[in-house]
């Protein structure tokens, strides 16, 4: 009887410990067909080229990149938690790994500590500028986002940083902020910082971000979104490190499972050439909470690009 009680106590304690720690496998499968005229080869947004309709995976005209990842969190007690996130890209064309950072875990490779005081994150991760744009951008930062393809992510050309130390404040009344920093030894001799300030509460989402590399140009972006009923309106102003700056204006309408989005950008300055007016038209139909089909037409710097696809989140 005593042995049985001891065994039950050990199992109960083990179950409690296991309940305090969890690991989750997740991912995205996204594939379709499309035609891309913008760019000059490769498979990354802004670097595609084809004059033929072909299979699309991880391209500018997919809603997102296919990926598989693992994340975990452990409750350390006293309100303190520790966690990690590893994420790898996947090309559904041939099954190859797509590491946007050059490695297998190129999409994410980081760990963090968090509590009531905020969250400290270390490693490769999406930077503060990305999260600022994601607060108000209408497509959910899709690959074919006209804002991201024109001005980057709040003026930042890429969505991720490697070797980043970042601190995010707790959310207070809808307000939060994050500061990311990369030491010069980890960034080719040039230290880099990236910061955001976000307000997201009810129908209003506002994001402000700025970033700069030593000996580089300041980049920044500010945007806002207002949702009312089945409709949303968004506008922004972005400066892509003095190379390109301008504004965006768009709206979306939701009718049950169907969502239609239109977004337009306009250059006010473009060091690389003429000033462009770019536009996106996106249609999505939800087959379930985790699966939807989509179609998008992107007018980007005098080129017409389009794609049809399906995305499943798991």
* Overall pLDDT confidence: 91
Structural class: mainly beta
What is the CATH C-level name?
A: Mainly Beta
Q: Kindly report how far apart the N and C termini lie.
A: 45 Å
CATH arch. level architecture: Beta Barrel
Low-confidence stretches: 1-19, 40-47
Question: Helical region count?
Answer: 3
Number of strand segments: 18
- Biggest sheet: strands, sense, closure? 16 strands, antiparallel, barrel
Q: What share of residues are in beta strands?
A: over 45%
In total, the number of domains comes to 1
Structure overview:
The protein has a 16-stranded antiparallel barrel with strand order 1-3-4-6-7-8-9-10-11-12-13-14-15-16-17-18. It is globular, with a radius of gyration of 21 Å. 11% of the residues lie in helices and 55% in strands. Strand 11 and strand 12 form a beta hairpin. It contains three helices and 18 strands. The chain has one domain: Porin (Beta Barrel). It has 314 residues and is mostly beta strands. The N terminus is likely disordered.
What's a quick, concise take on this entry?
This protein is mainly β and 314 residues long.
Topology:
Elements: H1 2-19, E1 21-35, E2 54-56, E3 67-77, E4 80-90, E5 97-98, E6 108-115, E7 118-126, H2 128-136, H3 146-151, E8 160-168, E9 175-182, E10 192-201, E11 204-213, E12 219-228, E13 231-240, E14 244-255, E15 258-270, E16 277-286, E17 291-300, E18 303-313
Antiparallel strand pairs: 1-2, 1-3, 1-18, 3-4, 4-5, 4-6, 6-7, 7-8, 8-9, 9-10, 10-11, 11-12, 12-13, 13-14, 14-15, 15-16, 16-17, 17-18
């Amino acid at each position: 009887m005593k042995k049985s009680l001891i065994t039950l106590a050990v199992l109960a304690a083990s179950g409690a410990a296991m309940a305090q720690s969890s690991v989750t496998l997740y991912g995205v499968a996204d594939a379709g067909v499309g035609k891309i005229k913008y760019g000059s080869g490769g498979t990354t947004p802004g670097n595609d080229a084809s004059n033929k309709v072909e299979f699309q995976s991880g391209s500018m005209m997919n809603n997102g990149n296919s990926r598989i990842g693992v994340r975990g969190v452990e409750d350390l007690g006293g309100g303190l938690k520790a966690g990690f996130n590893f994420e790898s890209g996947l090309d559904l064309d041939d099954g190859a790994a797509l590491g946007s950072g050059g490695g297998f875990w190129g999409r994410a490779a980081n760990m963090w500590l968090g509590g009531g005081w905020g969250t400290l994150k270390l490693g490769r991760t999406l930077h503060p500028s990305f999260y600022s744009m994601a607060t108000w951008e209408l497509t959910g930062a899709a690959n074919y986002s006209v804002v991201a393809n024109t001005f980057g992510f709040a003026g930042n050309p890429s969505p991720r940083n490697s070797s980043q130390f970042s601190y995010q404040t707790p959310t207070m009344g809808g307000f939060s902020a994050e500061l990311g920093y990369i030491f010069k030894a980890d960034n080719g001799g040039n230290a880099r910082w990236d910061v955001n300030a976000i307000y997201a509460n009810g129908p209003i989402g506002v994001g402000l971000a700025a970033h700069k590399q030593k000996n580089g140009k300041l980049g920044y972006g500010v945007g806002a979104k207002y949702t009312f009923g089945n409709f949303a309106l968004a506008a922004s102003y972005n400066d892509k490190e003095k190379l390109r700056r301008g504004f965006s204006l768009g709206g979306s309408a939701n009718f049950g499972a169907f969502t239609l989005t239109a977004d337009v950008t306009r250059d006010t300055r473009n060091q690389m050439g003429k000033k462009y007016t770019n536009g996106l038209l996106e249609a999505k139909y939800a087959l379930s909470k985790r699966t939807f089909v989509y179609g998008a037409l992107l007018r980007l710097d005098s080129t017409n690009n389009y794609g049809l696809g399906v995305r499943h989140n798991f």
